[in-house]
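Hi Prof. W.,

I finally got the Tetratricopeptide repeat protein prediction working! I wasn't sure whether to trim anything, so I left the full sequence exactly as given:
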Amino acid sequence: MPYFARYNKIFDLKILISKIAFYFLLSPAFLLTNRALFAEPETEDALETGRYAEAASKYTNLCGKGCGNTDVKELVSSFETENVGDHCNRLGVAYMGLKNFKAAIRSFQLAVSCKDSSKFHSNLALAFSYDHNSKLAEIHYEKSMSLAGNDPGSFSAMLNYSIFLIKKKDFSKAEELLQEIIHHKTHLFYARLYLGYSFYQRKKFEEALSQFDQGIQENQKYPDLYLYRAYSKYQLNNLAGAEYDLNQAELLDPDFKNPKIDQLRSLIARRNQGRIR
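And this is what came out:
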């Protein structure tokens, strides 16, 4: 299909990553920890509601008190909570939200110094990636994978690594990781989203369409999925189906603004007029 070469840049991977990055930076188990030990409730609210400067200010103090403090570590251990590196991990997340990637790197490095955790190495790798240091990012992703087990947190690290591999165009390795995540039935929506992206980039349009179909079954309210599925249908010459998906994306979110919608509508109109084959 010769038209593919002109219109294969339908996905902005940076936008896709930014939409889900912070979900995976935070360990779900952290929310179950003793709030008196780890943070004031309003501190957690600040981070989870995007008040990153406020969260960074508070977690700077908590990270400094926690990491390296033997007494605190013993107390935390006795409560069977996550290790004190979570303070520094959350500080790193706050800095990521502020786009201060070097400060995020320092915070995640402190988290790693508290515990050699797959999660913390994955977050550190992501920060290095945003700071345009692919070499160190890969080192920490590989360390993250070496520490990963079968717990849910390890699969979020695997997802982050697969996204990194896609950016490197190492599609086969990324797809292996994504298939493993799907096999364990964790993070299904995100895994299918990126697996579809990888297939599309390799011009495997039917496989991409299948993943977007299944992703929509798992999350029917995410407009981007309909947009990506629309492009897959367009590549397969299902123009009516592509138009339907564009309409669905806009119906789900009237404020959903993406120039790719207008671009695809233009392509559909031109192909209907016989100007693109």
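The two ends are 8 Å apart (CA to CA). Does that look reasonable to you?

Thanks,
D.
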